[in-house]
């Protein structure tokens, strides 16, 4: 039997994948982009703050737009095709990653807000 055929179970009986690369299994408990405390795909101190994710996405957006602008500048000056294609690919790839980062930050912010609301609701006295 191969190791990928094994099924691992939590104490409550639900299945889980112990692979450090399967982060999606934690989304229900820890929210979008969330993982157990201190770990993210095997790395320590993951970026889980929506504000920090947004800040990093803005920084990456600026770099990507700069790469695209440089590519167009090289096109205008009659530069080499390899440089133009590389700059366009890096800039476009960066912008795609930024879109996903902004989306993840928004989902994470909404999930955290819902968790705070649930916590406040469960702590409020009923009367």
Annotate the secondary structure layout.
Layout: E1 8-9, E2 15-16, H1 27-30, E3 39-40, E4 43-44, H2 50-76, H3 81-123
Antiparallel strand pairs: 1-2, 3-4
Helix pairs in contact: 2-3
The average pLDDT value, as a whole number, equals: 79
The main sheet orders its strands as: 1-2
Biggest sheet statistics: 2 strands, antiparallel
- What level of helicity do the residues show? 55-70%
- The general outline is elongated
Low-confidence stretches: none
Quote the distance from N terminus to C terminus: 57 Å
Q: Class by helix and strand content?
A: mainly alpha
If you compute it from the alpha carbons, what radius of gyration comes out, rounded to the nearest whole angstrom? 21 Å
Report a brief summary of the structure:
This protein has 127 residues and is mainly alpha-helical. Helix content is 58%, strand content 6%.
Mind explaining what this structure looks like?
There is one protein chain. The chain is mainly α. The chain has three helices and four strands. It has helices at residues 27-30, 50-76, 81-123; strands spanning 8-9, 15-16, 39-40, 43-44. Strands 1-2 form a two-stranded antiparallel sheet. A two-stranded antiparallel ribbon has the order 3-4. It is elongated, with a radius of gyration of 21 Å. The N and C termini lie far apart (57 Å). The mean pLDDT is 79.
């Amino acid at each position: 039997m191969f190791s990928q055929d094994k099924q691992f179970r939590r104490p409550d009986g639900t299945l889980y994948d112990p692979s450090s690369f399967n982060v999606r299994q934690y989304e229900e408990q820890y929210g979008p982009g969330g993982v157990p405390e201190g770990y993210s795909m095997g790395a320590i101190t993951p970026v889980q703050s929506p504000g920090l994710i947004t800040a990093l996405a803005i920084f990456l957006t600026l770099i990507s737009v700069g790469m695209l602008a440089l590519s167009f500048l090289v096109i205008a000056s009659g530069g080499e095709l390899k440089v133009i294609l590389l700059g366009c690919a890096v800039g476009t790839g960066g912008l795609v990653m930024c879109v996903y980062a902004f989306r993840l930050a928004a989902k994470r912010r909404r999930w955290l807000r819902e968790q705070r609301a649930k916590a406040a609701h469960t702590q409020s006295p009923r009367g």
